[in-house]
TrEMBL record:
Keyword S-adenosyl-L-methionine among record annotations: no
Region (Disordered): 44-187
Extent of Basic and acidic residues compositional bias: 84-94
UniProt keyword list: Signal
InterPro entries named among the record's database cross-references: BBP2_2
Signal peptide per UniProt: 1-30
Record-given protein name: Outer membrane beta-barrel protein
Xref: Pfam families: BBP2_2 (PF10082)
Residue stretches of biased makeup (Pro residues): 144-154
Annotated Low complexity bias: 71-82, 167-179
Amino acid sequence: MGSSPSMGRSKRALFLGAALPCLVPGLALTALGSAPAAAQSLTPDLFNPNRGGFASPETLPTRRTAGVPQSPSDALPVLPDPAADPRKAREKPATSRIGQVPTYGLPAAAGASNSGYDSLNRKRQQPKLYPGQPKPKRAAGPGSPAPTTAPPPLTLGLPKIAPPPSASANKAPVPAAMAGTVPGQPLRRRLKADDDAFGAVGDYAGSFLIKGGLELSTGYDTNPTRLNKPVGSPVYVVAPDLLVASDWERHALVADLRGSFSGYTQNMPATIDGFASPSPVEADRPDFTGHVDGRLDVSRDLKLTSQLRLRLATDNPGSPNVQAGLQRYPVYAAYGTTVGFDQTFNRFQVAAGATVDRTAYTDSKLTDGSTFSNGDRDFNQYGGIGRFSYDLKPGLKPFVEIQGDTRVHDQAADRNGFFRDSNGGYAKAGTSFEFSRILTGEISVGYSARNYTDPRLSQLAGFLTSGSLIWNASGLTTMKFFTDTQIAETTVPGSSGVLVRTYSAEVDHDFRRWLTAVGKFTYGTLDYQGQNRNDKTYSLEGNLIYKLNRNIWVKGTLRHDILDSNQPGSSSQGTVMLVGVRLQN
């Protein structure tokens, strides 16, 4: 029975495996026997089992030279410690890895830095900001650009393509400390530019900003009482003012109080050409105008408004309402209040209010020592006012305003026997506008009328204009225009009242930030309806203001007044020269 092929191959492999070790030494000895024999010295390095042990490391051709860093593979291995028994190390149990997170050389979330994703959900360390430095906005997510610390833009909206050259004209250079551009200075929020470098700063009392001032002036007036034949006198003026404004996020409260007292050191004559003088002997005159405005923000579109007002003054010098033979001017007080609301419907706005006013005069003191009552000039006024406006486009807001009132006097008949109770009002239409902050203001035209209970007094009516316009002609020059129309009471027999129209223009020019010139021209008409008397007034005034600092100003004033009347002997002229100082905070 023959064997399989696989069994034969296995036997031949065993035979060759046994014969091969016997043949190799014989072949090696044969080769050595044919070559010349060389002796080799025995050294301890031949028994060194480490790599590089047959030669000294200092003599190796591949040794590391100076300045070449050594790679980890060139370092000689550290010999094992003979005291350590590897069998005991293998018998020691391995540490448990239950609950342990492998680090693989890096801790978890080590690459998150300050803006990447943190798998451990740890609270990030906030950057340390210097005092006054703007807080950077948080990045939207991974890959977002780092927030910049550039100052916010000074204006909102789209940037101007080509700003006019006057945009940077007459602007005080911003100090580097205020702009935050000092080298090495921490970044800070840029402060708002101060429009008036020499204006009053004021003080804070809680949440109210208080600004106060006092003007002291002295000079000469060539005709204090505006007589047809001038009689002059030295004059001094004391003019305090106070402004209190709230600094609230909602609601508002503002008080604006301004007054003056003009004192004359020389008395006027009591008689002229043997008759009682049409002007008082003592020409001293007080003047005060004050109002307190409040606003209550009920909602975004509804606001409740109110006002308290007070006017303290005398009749104008040269007015026919001034009695003859007076010792001093009688003082009147006109005070009242308005309560209303302001409602906005998208672009449409409605404002309305109820008004109550009172006008009262002091008794007249005559040169002979007697007194004369002015109770017939005292009256109460009750009325209401409404205004409807619409935002046609940004910077243009047309409106319509309607007002009506009733005047009731304390005495039914005045000193001349006329019944002066009346009803009246006005209606006007106009618009407020704002064009690139260069031209701003409001202008309106309308018609006013007043009817009296006395049939002998004709209706007082006329065309009225009202408005204010401010034109910033350049960075150095500002022009202002004002116009107003009012209906005033009078004591002239047979006259219904006085229709007073006033037009004024003012130019302010800064030669320097601390040196300002102001020019003002005023024109007015007084129409005494029913008596065919028409007066025209002209006033030309110039002021030069030198600002030493924010608290002290020096001011000079020169004014010339003209009263031109169609009544003989009623025209007059006068010039006022004043030099003073203003103290403010």
